[in-house]
């Protein structure tokens, strides 16, 4: 399995699937379908006859039940797209076999050095096969690790009919990184009772809660005038907007100063000119009440700023993005308990961590598919120093297979 999943993963990461937060199409980039089409074809080659990619780039497939029991239908889900944070073009995956603990220097940018100092997790991976990119792109382990794990688990289940399981549904989604991963899912077609996403860092983590998330869109319309004759007339939308941004907290309520269960507000896009300027922010918190308090705070800050630009107009629009899946999962404790047991059977001590981010599983949970997350081994995601341990992906594959058996045993 070690060699198979290595080759599988390295094949997938070389396909550019970066999504685009500014695109209005779905998927946001057509190139995501290149990987989706390959996955559907490989699933059919395994003998999964109904594997297909739909017009939106989703992949659906079924591993039929081989059990005499009436077992709930499980879905395993991962996303094919990679983050817009840094380049996903011409990814060159590098295999560092039997990692010896020495720093890893990435050849295409020798200033990019991975060591146990800046990546403490490497210290626990002595003897593992580590895969990195070459130093100028992300690797794409987020979430092609999850994709490779599900594909490997599917192959193991198809070629080993002695492993008992109910009906398994496989789902690969586009556009998770830009918050649209579940927008076009056909839940009736999916037809699953419970689900698990394979995404996130470490190994043996079971994540049953995540940030609740909203976005804010601010638009300021200033008062234009010729700059040579602007005294007492001009109100510059850029100056108004940057004055507001300058008032945002710098030592609290920001990503760079928060951790654990602390929330934040975060400007992610700014654009404009004298006449009109816009700003997009994201707001995150595990507690919805605190999320709403942050929104009220931002609106008050904007109102105060605009008292200095009384002739200008402005708008403040809030959009709900996703909510903490724990609200749903607490009603279905077996979903998480069985995942913890599967981790134990793989020989790992399970851990539960809150996700300081979002997941397709959060949205799926509120769409009627309770769906915690199982870690896929991803490390240093969204960066050129991204890496993954092949042995961690193998363990995650084992966890998926154990999960299928545990659900069957308890049916």
Strand order of the largest sheet: 1-2-8-3-9-16-10-15
Instruction: Give me the CATH fold name of the largest domain.
Output: Aminopeptidase
Number of helices: 10
Helix percentage: 25-40%
Count of folded domains = 2
**Class inferred from helices and paired strands:** alpha+beta
The oligomeric state of the chains shown is single chain
How do the helices and strands follow one another from N- to C-terminus? HHEEEEEEEHEHEEEHEEHEHHEHEEH
Shape descriptor: globular
Which architecture name of the largest domain does CATH use? 3-Layer(aba) Sandwich
| Low-confidence segments | none
Provide mean pLDDT, rounded: 96
By CATH reckoning, the class of the largest domain would read Alpha Beta
Can you give a write-up of this model?
The chain is of the alpha+beta class and 411 residues long. It folds into 2 domains: 2-210 and 324-409, 3-Layer(aba) Sandwich (Aminopeptidase), CATH 3.40.630; 213-322, Alpha-Beta Plaits (2-Layer Sandwich), CATH 3.30.70.360. Helix content is 30%, strand content 20%. The chain has 10 helices and 17 strands. The strands form 4 sheets. An 8-stranded mixed sheet has the order 1-2-8-3-9-16-10-15, with helices on both faces. Strands 12-13-11-14 form a 4-stranded antiparallel sheet, covered by helices on one side. A hairpin with a 3-residue loop joins strand 12 (264-272) and strand 13. Helix 1 (2-13) crosses helix 3 and helix 3 packs across helix 10. The radius of gyration is 23 Å and the shape is globular. The two termini are 29 Å apart. The model has no long low-confidence stretch (mean pLDDT 96).
């Amino acid at each position: 399995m070690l060699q198979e999943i290595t080759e599988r993963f390295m094949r997938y990461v070389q396909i550019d699937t970066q999504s685009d937060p500014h695109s209005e199409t779905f998927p946001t980039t057509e190139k995501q379908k290149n990987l989706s089409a390959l996955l559907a074809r490989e699933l059919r080659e395994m003998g999964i006859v109904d594997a297909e990619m739909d017009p939106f780039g989703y992949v659906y497939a079924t591993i039929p039940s081989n059990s005499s029991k009436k077992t709930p239908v499980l879905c395993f889900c991962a996303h094919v797209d990679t983050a817009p944070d840094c380049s996903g073009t011409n990814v060159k995956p590098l295999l560092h076999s039997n990692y010896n603990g020495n720093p890893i220097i990435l050849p295409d940018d020798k200033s990019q050095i991975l060591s146990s100092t800046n990546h403490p997790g490497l210290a626990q991976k002595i003897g593992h096969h580590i895969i990195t990119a070459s130093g100028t792109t992300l690797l794409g382990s987020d979430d092609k690790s999850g994709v490779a794990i599900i594909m490997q688990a599917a192959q193991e289940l198809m070629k080993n009919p002695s492993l008992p399981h109910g009906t398994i549904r496989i789902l690969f989604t586009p556009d998770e990184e830009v918050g649209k991963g579940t927008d076009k899912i056909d839940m009736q077609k999916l037809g699953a009772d419970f689900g698990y996403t394979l995404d996130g860092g470490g190994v043996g983590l079971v994540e049953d809660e995540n940030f609740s998330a909203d976005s804010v869109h601010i638009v300021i319309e200033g008062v234009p005038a010729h700059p040579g004759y602007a005294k007492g007339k001009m109100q510059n939308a850029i100056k108004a907007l940057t004055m507001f941004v300058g008032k945002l907290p710098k030592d609290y309520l920001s990503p760079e100063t928060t951790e654990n269960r602390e929330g934040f507000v975060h400007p992610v896009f700014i654009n404009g000119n004298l006449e009109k300027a816009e700003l997009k922010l994201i707001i995150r918190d595990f507690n919805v009440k605190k999320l709403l308090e942050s929104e009220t705070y931002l609106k008050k800050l904007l109102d105060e700023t605009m008292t200095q630009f009384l002739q200008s107009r402005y708008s403040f629009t809030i959009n709900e993005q996703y909510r903490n899946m724990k609200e749903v999962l607490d009603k279905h404790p077996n979903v998480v308990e069985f995942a913890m047991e599967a981790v134990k059977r793989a020989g790992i001590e399970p851990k539960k961590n809150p996700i300081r981010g979002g997941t397709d599983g959060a949205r799926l949970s509120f769409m009627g598919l309770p769906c915690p997350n199982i870690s896929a081994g991803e490390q240093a995601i969204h960066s050129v120093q991204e890496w993954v341990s092949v042995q961690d992906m193998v363990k995650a594959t084992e966890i998926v297979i154990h999960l299928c058996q545990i659900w069957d045993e308890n049916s």
